[in-house]
Amino acid sequence: MTKRTLLSVLVAGACIAPFMAQATMLQETSSEPYTIKASDLAKKEQELTNFPLMQSVKATIRTLDNSLVEQIEPGKATNPANVKRVESILKESDWEYLFPLRAKEYSYSNFLKAVGKFPALCDTYNDGRDSDAICRKELATMFAHFAQETGGHESWRPEAEWRQALVYVREMGWSEGQKGGYNGECNPDVWQGQTLAVR
User: Fold this and answer.
1) What distances in angstroms separate CA 164 from CA 27, 53, 98, 100, 170, one per listed residue?
2) Which of the 8 DSSP states describes residue 121?
3) Which ranges of the sequence are coiled-coil (predicted)?
4) Mean pLDDT, consecutive 10-residue segments, the chain of 199 residues?
5) In angstroms, how far is CA 58 from the centroid of its own chain?
6) Average pLDDT of the chain?
7) Alpha helical stretches, state H, 90-130
8) Distance in angstroms between the alpha carbons of the first and the last residue of the chain
9) Residues near 175 by Cβ (< 8 Å), separated by ≥ 6?
C-alpha cells in the first residue's frame, strides 16, 4: 500500500469518526432513526479537508466523468495518458495470460476503463520520479489484491493460484439485491442500519 493510499484511508476514517460517535450518542438517547443531511456532510467535509495535505489526497482520488470513461478502448489515440501508460506496460496478451479464468466482466477493455476512471492511477510525475516504475508497482499491488480477493484459490487447477484472479464478481454467498451481503452494518435489524439508514 502506498503512503498516499494509506493516508487516504486514515483521513477517510478520521472524517467519518465524528459521525460514528454522534450516531452512538444518538442510539443511546433515542431509538428513532436519525437522518444526516447531505448538505451537513458536505459542509463538514469542507471543514475537515480544507488544507494542503488533504487537497493532495483529494487529487489522488479524483475521477473522470463516465461519459469520457466509456470512450476508452484499447489502442485508442484519445485515451487518457494514464491509460496509455498502462497499455504500454500491460498488453492485452499479458492480460489474457495473467487472468485466464476471469469472469467475462473483467475484460481488458473494462480494465482500461477502470484505470481511466481514476486519473491518479499510473499518473505522470514531473518531479523526477519514474512514472513507469511507479505504475508497475501499482499494477503489481493491484494484481496481488485481485488474486487474493477475487481468486479461485483452487490448487488442483493447472493454472497457478496467482493466475486465478478475477474469478468472482460478487462476494461469495451473496446474491444480487441482497441487503447486507458483504457486511452487517447496513442491515436494518442492527443499530447501524437503523441509525445511519440511507434515505
Assistant:
1) 44, 38, 8, 7, 15
2) T
3) none
4) 60 58 58 85 91 90 96 98 98 97 96 98 96 98 94 92 91 71 68 67
5) 14
6) 85
7) 92-98, 108-117
8) 34
9) 181
All three cell numbers of 82: 494514464
Overall pTM > 0.90: no
pLDDT tens, residue by residue, 107-145: 999 999 999 999 999 999 999 999 999 999 999 999 999
- How far apart CA 116 and CA 80 sit, in angstroms, is 7
Helix (H, G, I), strand (E, B) or coil at 7: helix
User: Quick one: pLDDT at residue 76?
Assistant: 98
Contact 185, 197 (CB under 8 A): no
- All structural domains of the chain with their residue ranges: 63-137
